[in-house]
């Protein structure tokens, strides 16, 4: 069990990391909302602060008063139980408070949370601990969103600005291998060790037929083969909704690719570069992942297959976000085990995002965190090169609509009955 000092050290580190990620961005960068799904950087910085203010300080700070009355309205994301809020798709219209005002808001809440945690007795700290822990993981989720979102913002700028200037990552082509699993009656879900979100409970049994998973992610080179073979022009490869999107939005390549004089280029947070065939393909929708799997004669894994495999292999975190590199890397040498599991790209599964059997959201507004989104979305597993270090785990259930392309997604093939 963490001591008060350890909790406060972690609080300071999580909060400082958000500010490190925002540091390369000007106040103008931090204000842009390039599409409805994207939130401005300064909104992310303020919203995670609002989370601590609303769910920790408002509930437990003696004589609580909000930092600014209207911030409650501006920085509530989707919590109906907290009250009305500003229109999500209009967040980019808010020029005030500015990025510097948000820094003042953050500093005020940081000081008050620190003071509260420092002052309470042991029994009260135990009551606060789950909310503080949720606040850490919530802020880490937004650290990834901040990077996803600013990647999209910068992608629309014809000057091709660079977020971070790390060198390109060298890649080595590598043959795809397979790892087999017996399946049978397995258990998935949170074990009770360490943090988990409510959607990872209850732990429960699943029956798995014998199956195989590809030992690495699909590469850009393989994706180019799919494109060359008419992958985006063959309706027979696509789910109906996906084919509709291909036609309506003229998809012909992954989200951040464009072609110049016969050469494909990819926008990254490190600038725009020719597509490296050895790197994992990324920023593809579930529809594209499914079409690729069909083209390759395979399928996507279920979330239970993925989790069972990751737990069986005691997967460890690799290539998550650090302050030098924010892009997936080529798989290392084959080892006979699954590579690139926790990091690189979130991996689309064929599983709809549904409650586990017996799932109950937490009471109160914080119960809106996950449960109410269990409709029309697909589960992704693993983590990405935009995920903060220490935030991945085998049981983590990420989710996005099947047409989403701006998250750092990728494809792992599955095979078997
Ligand atoms: Fe949030």
Automatic annotation (TrEMBL):
<dbReference type="InterPro" id="IPR051043">
    <property type="entry name" value="Sulfatase_Mod_Factor_Kinase"/>
</dbReference>
<dbReference type="Pfam" id="PF03781">
    <property type="entry name" value="FGE-sulfatase"/>
</dbReference>
<dbReference type="Pfam" id="PF12867">
    <property type="entry name" value="DinB_2"/>
</dbReference>
<comment type="pathway">
    <text>Amino-acid biosynthesis; ergothioneine biosynthesis.</text>
</comment>
<dbReference type="InterPro" id="IPR024775">
    <property type="entry name" value="DinB-like"/>
</dbReference>
<dbReference type="InterPro" id="IPR016187">
    <property type="entry name" value="CTDL_fold"/>
</dbReference>
<feature type="domain" description="Sulfatase-modifying factor enzyme-like">
    <location>
        <begin position="338"/>
        <end position="414"/>
    </location>
</feature>
<dbReference type="InterPro" id="IPR042095">
    <property type="entry name" value="SUMF_sf"/>
</dbReference>
<dbReference type="InterPro" id="IPR005532">
    <property type="entry name" value="SUMF_dom"/>
</dbReference>
<keyword id="KW-0560">Oxidoreductase</keyword>
<keyword id="KW-0408">Iron</keyword>
<dbReference type="InterPro" id="IPR017806">
    <property type="entry name" value="EgtB"/>
</dbReference>
<feature type="domain" description="Sulfatase-modifying factor enzyme-like">
    <location>
        <begin position="178"/>
        <end position="329"/>
    </location>
</feature>
<feature type="domain" description="DinB-like">
    <location>
        <begin position="11"/>
        <end position="144"/>
    </location>
</feature>
<protein>
    <submittedName>
        <fullName>Ergothioneine biosynthesis protein EgtB</fullName>
    </submittedName>
</protein>
